[in-house]
Amino acid sequence: MATLFQSAASPLLHRSSSSCCSWLSASGGGHLKLKGEDAVRRHGRLVVKAEDERNGSAAGEVVAKPRKASPLQRGGTLSGEEAEGKDPSPAALLANKKPLMSLGGGMFEDARWKNGTWDIQQFTNSGRVDWDAVIDAEIARRKWLEENPEASSNSDPVVFDTSTVPWWAWVKRFHLPEAEILNGRAAMIGYFAAYLIDSATGVGLVDQTNSFFGKLLLFIAVTGVLLIRKNEDANNLKTLASEWTFYDKQWQATWKNEEQHPVSEKEIKL
Amino acid sequence: MASANLLGSSSLSLATHSTTKTTAASAFLSLFHPKFGRSAISYSDRSLTAVVAAAGIQKRLSGNGFFGNIEAFRRNEVCKRVEIVKDMVVVRIFAGMNSRKLEGRKLRVAVVGGGPAGGSAAETLAKGGIETFLFERKLDNAKPCGGAIPLCMVGEFDLPQDIIDRKVTKMKMISPSNVAVDVGRTLNENEYIGMVRREVLDSYMRDRAASFGAQVINGLYLRMEAPKDEDSPYVLHYTRYDGKSKVGTPSKLEVDAIVGADGANSRVAKDIDAGDYDYAIAFQERIKIPDEKMAYYENLAEMYVGADVSPDFYGWVFPKCDHVAVGTGTVIDKPAIKKYQTATRNRAKDKIEGGKIIRVEAHPIPEHPRPRRVKDRVALVGDAAGYVTKCSGEGIYFAAKSGRMCAEAIVEGSAFGQRMINEADLRTYLRKWDNKYWPTYKVLDILQKLFYRSNPAREAFVEMCADEYVQKMTFDSYLYKTVVPGNPLDDLKLAVNTIGSLVRAYALRNESLKATA
User: Fold this and answer.
1) DSSP string, A197-220
2) All residues at 6 or more sequence positions from B168 whose CB lies less than 8 Å from its CB, including other chains
3) Taking CB atoms and an 8 Å cutoff, what residues of chain A touch B427?
4) Distance from A251 to chain B by nearest Cα, in Å?
């Protein structure tokens, strides 16, 4: 593969000062020879000729300047876990630790998976479809395929759509338990907050609810619980807010420049 | 002083005016409001003095959205001086009118780079009567590229049908769990995505520019010398190749303005301190596959999404003239690009089995515009400026369009080559470009941030693509480059469905994380 790449790439390397392949070689992908003055510039080194050095040792001494990062490291490249994306799958994170993912895991197989979709008949017992089992099966399938990506096939296409599972099954499985937990938390906090406020100010629960201040605090508490459920959520919201306007700032940068370097005023000539 | 009352009136009502002032005022307005169009501008006007009420400016500009506020108006170069005369604000527009008339010669402009941006810029400049020099370092260059052009480009740039190798009318989107969705049912017979070979497209546009009078120079741009004052020329240093020897002769050329169309690694951009941008690396292998497998890709292109294929982009299989291009790209994990390419090839394994790799290529793709796109009389267009959309990574159409818009601004500002131009004229092009295409770019940025975020988001994305309304909206906006609002009820349904898909996909993933944790 590497030699194929080199032989295919060498025709691209002529009188080009910005050859794409010089990148990949600079990052150590091969031993392609670069031509021209750019070779020296690109590697960020200064080659001091032997005549300048009077100590008479080796033919040429290399004085290393701090090396500018290669093109593959610049331009938005992240490293470590961040390089897997904003919301990486656990499989992607693991893949870095173990060697290149093997496709030896085999294809995904399940008795209930027929013709590229789940056979709902097989999930039915006594006339009622067990949607929870369908959801579990799909979870297992997606997890398997994340860890062992398969080739997409035309003869056996996957056509499963999650909307075949009715909305109430999703609500019952995912929304209700979490709603129960959140409501429980809100109730506990509310009870103790009401008790403390009552003991501190003598204002009873009914009067607390009627006051504007009470309503405001209630609103803040409810929104807070909805938005920030884990500690990371606070940071996530901040990141989302800055992400939302980042692109706009990049586009407007050229107009900001204009203010710093205003074009000089001219006299009117009518 | 004549006065114009613009408060709340959509048509220009100027009571007692000579034709010159009417023309001038509507010329002024056309710079800010596309509705007025260009028909009123007459280039023979010697003065572009327009008089408006300050409140009128405010109201008109605040309706324009993006750059519409009186502060920006005061500071941009089109308005050089704002005076208060009696109780009205007098705005005098320069736009090159203050520059000296060039005696005995036309304006000279060098376009550095002979791709779609340079070709279209050179053609428009040459048509406008400007002495144009188009520099291209390699006349048979096959720039690594997806090669997809939208339908509107064929019409707007009068491209002949024979440079289009293939007309793609179907796309297949494949999710991380291999859910495959066919997209393209909503296209009619005349709509397609054109696949072109870059060497064919680029040389066609260059030759056409040459036929209008542009001088195509086979040379490599080295550097430019800044002019001493506003009327002095730029000195452009380049290596001229005469086609016989590999070694060129160093030469130089004096020009009045430079258009930098030299691509993602633009040297012109470096010379004007345009700043850096984030870029993706796009890596592509051209694979020749057996004929029966090639028949599947007759007019179909595929898009693979998944964390294995790319952490923030997509992998593709695009049909070319007689082979397919299989590739992928990424911004944040560039050193691992080969791993992603292997994964892409594995996902398409069944369909490209038995194929032979005939070429491997890679190139950077800018992610956003450079911090500075114009400096004095140098402007950047195309990839050099960073006009590549997010989400789809489309750049050919925007390169050609920006080249044309920049050239049009130069032609106007110089009154067809008779006067010297200045930075104000080039900023006119920037303003028109930003106003026209900002919604497109922003929408695609939102889509990328939303749907390329994680595997559940990608699954939801592919699920949404099955919806006919989504397909229609996507193709309409891609093929015709306008953000079409559509029917509000359908939009609401679409929003509900999108949220539903995302919620379901994330619920499945979170449940699986809980199971392993």
Assistant:
1) HHHHH---HHHHHHSHHHHHHHHH
2) B148, B192, B193, B194, B195, B299, B300, B301, B318, B319
3) 258
4) 6
pLDDT 10s digits, B160-180: 999 999 999 999 999 999 999
Q: How far apart are CA B115 and CA B263, in angstroms?
A: 8
Give the pLDDT band (50/70/90) at residue A104: low
Chain A environment of B349 (Cβ under 8 Å): 151
DSSP for A67-80 reads PPPPTTTSSS---G
- Maximal C-alpha separation, chain B: 81
Mutant choice from A1, A6, A7, A18 vs B, greatest count of B C-beta within 10 A: A18
Min distance B371 CA to chain A CA atoms (Å): 5
| CA A45 to centroid of chain Cα atoms | 35
Could you read off the pLDDT of B418-468 as tens digits, one per residue?
Answer: 999 999 999 999 999 999 999 899 989 999 999 999 999 999 999 999 999
CB of A253 within 8 Å of a chain B CB? The answer is: yes
Cα gap A186→A172, rounded to integer Å: 20
Query: What is the model's pTM?
Result: 0.76
* pLDDT, mean of residues B273-295: 94
Supply angle C-alpha B272, B276, B279, rounded to 5.
135
What does pLDDT average to over chain A?
Answer: 73
C-alpha B385/C-alpha B437 separation (Å) is 14
The H or E element that residue B27 is part of is: helix B19-32
Dmax over CA atoms of chain A, in Å, equals 95
Among A149, A259, A266, whose Cβ lies nearest the Cβ of B75? A259
How far apart are alpha carbons A160 and A123 in whole angstroms?
Answer: 15
For residue B460, the tally of other CB atoms under 10 A from its CB is: 26
Token pair belonging to A148: 């062992």
Q: DSSP 3-state assignment of B103?
A: coil
Tell me the pLDDT band of B63, cut-offs 50, 70 and 90.
very low
**pLDDT score at A242:** 87
CA dist B13 to B7, B17, B52, B180, B395, Å?
10, 10, 11, 58, 41
Determine the Cα–Cα distance for residues B364 and B372; give it in Å rounded to an integer: 19
Give the nearest chain A residue to B71 (CA atoms): A259
Q: Which residues of B touch A8 (CB under 8 A)?
A: 357-360
Listed residue (B188, B119, B184) closest to B158, CA to CA: B119
Nearest to A76 among B279, B337, B342 (CB): B279
Q: What's B63's DSSP letter?
A: T
State the smallest CA–CA distance between residue A15 and chain B in angstroms: 8
Q: For residue B111, which phi and psi values (nearest 5 degrees)?
A: -105, 115
Ramachandran area for residue B29 (φ above 0: left; ψ -120 to 50: alpha; else beta): alpha
Angle, CA B148 vertex, CA B146 and CA B153 arms, to 5°: 145
| Mutation target among B138, B504, B514, B516 for the A interface, most CBs of A within 10 A | B504
> Which chain B residue has its CA at the smallest distance from A245's CA?
B442
Measured CA to CA in angstroms, residue A182 lies from B103, B191, B401, B505 at distances of 79, 51, 53, 21
B209 phi/psi in degrees, rounded to 5: -60, -40
Reported ipTM: 0.73
What type of residue sits at position B459? E
Which residue type does A2 have? A
Name the minimum distance, in Å, from the CA of A58 to any CA of chain B. Answer: 32
Query: Which among B111, B18, B93 is positioned nearest to B52, based on CA atoms?
Result: B93
Rounded to a whole number, what is the distance in Å from the CA of A16 to chain B's nearest CA? 8
Closest Cα partner for B375 from B236, B270, B287, B489? B270
